[in-house]
Amino acid sequence: MGALDEGHCDVELENSLKLGCIKLGVGVGVEEEPETAQIENAVRVLLRGLGEDINREGLKKTPLRVAKALREGTRGYNQNVKDIVQGALFPEAGLDNRVGHAGGAGGLVIVRDLDLFSYCESCLLPFQVKCHVGYVPSGQRVVGLSKLSRVSDVFAKRLQHPQRLADEISSALHLAIRPAGVAVVLECQHLHFPTLESMLLESRPEAWVKVLVSSGLGVFEDEDVSIWSELMSLLKYRNLTADKIRSTNSVGHWCPSQVSLTSKIPSSMGTLDPSMVSSATSILRSLGEDPFRSELVGTPARFVKWLMNFQNCNLEFKLNGFVSNKLDSPKSNGQMKSDTQIHCELKIPFWSQCEHHLLPFHGVVHIGYFCGEGVSPIGNSLVQSIVHFYGFKLQVQERLTRQIAETVAPLVGGDIMVVVDASHTCMVSRGIEQCGSSTATIAVLGRFSTDSGARALFFDSLPSTSNF
């Protein structure tokens, strides 16, 4: 099996694909490029607008980290499908200009469960994508299967909307490999857009907004043909058709920043800082986008509104009549009593913002404490208020865990254990690029710090899985 004639392939792709490509400077690292410096300057303005000290430890390198994350997450603007597909088209005996239906050579080919991520064009937050691509070979050619993933990633690494992403992937593949037909099905999920006010009103807010979209060309253009049913069956969506995907999911305004019920809740953040909105607009330009494109006109303001949920403010913090005053708090006697019980508050949801990349992370908090003599259990609403207070800040998970433990400890006698289980957007967009990973952190105070049996008892009370 050899590659098709490269000259013939080049001519076809040159004529078919008009996908503008901006080449990165040869030998120039991302950190030295002027666009990176422009984004860094914009991020510094945003951090100052949040009331942060840009020179404090933890934030010194945040502007560069954010710039690199955005440049990496939108690298698709600098890539061309032609460069990926050429040399990866192979002849296959038995294929001709007719469509094969017998399976094997000439039959339907599907690559399932491609994990991608993209930046939402409405709010600049990443969203996760599970991508499925199918095509029917034709014209005596098949394409290397890994190229289906790489082509999909080119368009995912741009500011995107789910339906346009599906359309662009199917169109590019249809033009590049000239199949009898190509279909793309995307399962997209976008992080919920909560505010501190909404978190206090909703005990179990939704973590994700999900949508299912599809796009088809060639033999897949007719949504009623049997080949769509075959594709859906192979994807385990046996009772779902392309038409039902579109009719049951409204994707016109799928981003939570545009449709969230939290927009109806009065906000105390006031008027957005014009300099912050201007800086967010400059980020779009530095990524090679047109801020005046209709889909992007409101994006800078929505991004700033999201960030302002995590502004650094010194508010008087009173919790259900408790003032965080350690002098009046009950103390632990440091000894285990036979009638002592572990009280648990499990699976308390939280949202926060990573101070290293300005990307959200979210998950659940588990708290255990001993109620001995003179110590009464505290209410769930009080614990939730403490978790949300520290969650809605620029954070790192280790600090968040410690702050929750140190604040709750004096209210319960000092013996406390806190476990935070979280999913980090930066782990998907900047780290291992693998959806589904999570991070756990632990803080222990009082007898939990010295008694392994007490820790084991609390671990046994934790749910086997954490459903964010």
From TrEMBL:
Give Gene Ontology CC terms.
Answer: cytoplasm
Which parts form a coiled-coil structure per UniProt?
Answer: none
- What pathway or pathways are given for this protein in its record? Cofactor biosynthesis; 7,8-dihydroneopterin triphosphate biosynthesis; 7,8-dihydroneopterin triphosphate from GTP: step 1/1
Looking up InterPro entries in the UniProt record yields:
GTP-CH-I_C/QueF, GTP-CH-I_N, GTP_CycHdrlase_I, GTP_CycHdrlase_I_dom
Q: What is the enzyme's class at the highest EC level?
A: hydrolase
**Keywords of this entry:** Hydrolase
Drop me one GO molecular function for this one.
GTP cyclohydrolase I activity
Cite the GTP cyclohydrolase I domain residue spans from the record: 39-191, 279-461
Tell me yes or no: is Nucleotide-binding among this UniProt entry's keywords.
Answer: no
Is Hydrolase there in the keyword field?
yes
Record EC number: 3.5.4.16
One Gene Ontology term of the biological-process aspect is: tetrahydrobiopterin biosynthetic process
Q: What is the superkingdom listed in this entry's lineage?
A: Eukaryota
Annotated family: Belongs to the GTP cyclohydrolase I family.
Q: What name does this protein carry?
A: GTP cyclohydrolase 1
- Where is the organism placed in the taxonomic lineage, from the top? Eukaryota, Viridiplantae, Streptophyta, Embryophyta, Tracheophyta
